[in-house]
Specification:
Helices cover 47% and strands 23% of the residues. The protein is built from twelve helices and twelve strands. The termini are far apart.
Length: 299
């Protein structure tokens, strides 16, 4: 089928009628009918059947429609891109971010970035680190601000900062400013991070190295959910310091230092074959600066 055929078939899919497709495409109804008939003749089968005044897709059309919808979205993106280029507007920068970082540092980074690039457009989405890496590999985003995790052959990771891990719990376990050994923390009723989470993997590795057993009756994937659970007095948890110090003060959580120190690296991930972008480089520079100002510079 030619592009004009696809355009008409898609317009009928969206509107459900020949007259609706004609209005959508700013064409006459006879012209739409003629193009549809031409497409069906070329294919050798019907795409639509008239049922109670509306056109319903044939079985063959139902198979084609998912691909047609994908093509339609790509055309819309292309139209937006050409419009942006015509108006001189900067390209869209698509950013993915681990949920904990999205709450702790991303608002300030976004604010500074848009003050520097008034015509830029940002799309920021919070996702788990593993999903961020997958989406970057599929080119569904440009950069990701994540905790360092498992390596991916198609992804480059650039470390920006090191964030200490801290123990968090209610006052029944310890007070803010306490210094606790990792084994002492794990010996308390423990709210464990998910085993696939970067902190979960780090704790599992530490336990394996020391021959300890990590026992927990509950594991939580979201750090904020772990903090809320700890606030009930059920147990203590371990999160990064950024998450701990941006927690809701109404939770009345206590924060203790872990000795010897455990740190988690934060950095930017991007597809290894991705072209360099001035906007992306500026955004990464701001990420590094904001993290450094929070005392999280790379050691």
């Amino acid at each position: 089928m030619r592009l004009r055929h696809l355009e008409v078939v898609n317009a009928i899919r969206v509107t459900g009628t020949l007259s609706g497709a004609a209005r959508l495409l700013h064409m006459t109804q006879p012209a739409v009918t003629q193009i549809l008939q031409s497409a069906e003749k070329q294919l050798g089968y019907q795409l639509y059947r008239r049922v109670r005044g509306r056109l319903e897709p044939s079985a063959e059309a139902a198979v084609i429609f998912p691909e047609l919808e994908t093509l339609d979205r790509q055309i819309v993106k292309l139209q937006q891109l050409t419009s942006n280029l015509r108006s001189g507007e900067a390209s869209l920068l698509r950013v993915l971010c681990a949920p904990a970082l999205a709450q702790a540092v991303m608002p300030e980074i976004i604010d500074r970035f848009l003050k520097q690039h008034a015509r830029a457009r940002l799309s920021v989405r919070a996702e788990y680190s593993s999903s961020v890496i997958s989406d970057l590999a599929l080119r569904e985003a440009d950069i990701g601000l994540v905790f360092e995790g498992e390596q991916h052959p198609a992804i480059d990771f650039t470390a920006l900062a090191e964030i200490p891990l801290v123990a968090v719990g209610s006052s029944k376990f310890f007070g803010t400013g306490a210094r606790l050994g990792l084994r002492d923390v794990l010996a308390m009723p423990f709210i464990a991070p998910d085993p696939v989470d970067p902190i979960g993997r780090m704790l599992a590795k530490a336990c394996e190295e020391h021959g300890w057993t990590l026992e927990s009756s509950v594991s939580v994937l979201l750090y904020q959910a772990a903090l809320a659970t700890a606030a009930t007095g059920l147990g203590v948890t371990i999160v990064d310091a950024l998450t701990a110090f941006t927690a809701d003060p109404r939770l009345l959580l206590q924060v203790a230092e872990i000795t010897p120190a455990l740190t988690l690296r934060v950095g930017v991930a991007r597809a290894a074959t991705n072209r360099q972008s001035g906007l992306a480089d500026d955004f990464i520079g701001l990420c590094r600066r904001v993290l450094s100002e929070r005392g999280m510079a790379l050691g």
